[in-house]
Design brief:
Structural class: alpha+beta
Order of helices and strands: EEEEHHEE
Distance between the termini: 23 Å
Largest sheet: 2 strands, antiparallel
Oligomer: single chain
Number of strands: 6
Helix content: 10-25%
Radius of gyration: 18 Å
């Protein structure tokens, strides 16, 4: 789910040394912005990136950054999300998205539902 609809959509870095990426020069001290949402939909990293598949294997998402830039709260966020979803499905095993749908909150660089209407059978 994090790969398909990343909560953090972009991040920035400062270029530490002169370099070149795919023919584009990056100068020391320059500020650059990365689209994590685009990286999560890169077909070279994730086959059929626009298809949501809860059983997808070998997921290589960048939703929490990576390496030394991994979000400090990544492990806690994963655990909280897993526990919340499991508790919701244990109580309401047959959920569908309601005709009222969902609405995203408006915040630069962050993405999340302001509301998601569900129907429990």
């Amino acid at each position: 789910m994090l790969r398909f609809d990343s909560p953090v959509t972009q991040t920035g870095r400062t270029v530490l040394v002169e370099t070149c990426v795919k023919g584009c020069p990056l100068h020391q001290g320059a500020s650059i912005t990365f689209s994590l949402a685009a990286a999560n939909h890169d077909p070279d990293a994730n086959p059929e990136p626009e298809r949501f598949d809860i059983k997808r294997r070998d997921i290589r998402h960048q939703s929490f950054g990576g390496g030394r830039h991994l979000c400090l709260g990544a492990h806690l966020a994963r655990m909280e999300g897993q526990e919340a979803i499991l508790a919701l499905l244990a109580r309401y095993p047959r959920l569908t998205i309601s005709s009222r749908g969902s609405r995203y909150r408006e915040a630069p660089s962050f993405r999340g539902s302001a509301e998601l209407w569900l129907t429990a059978e």
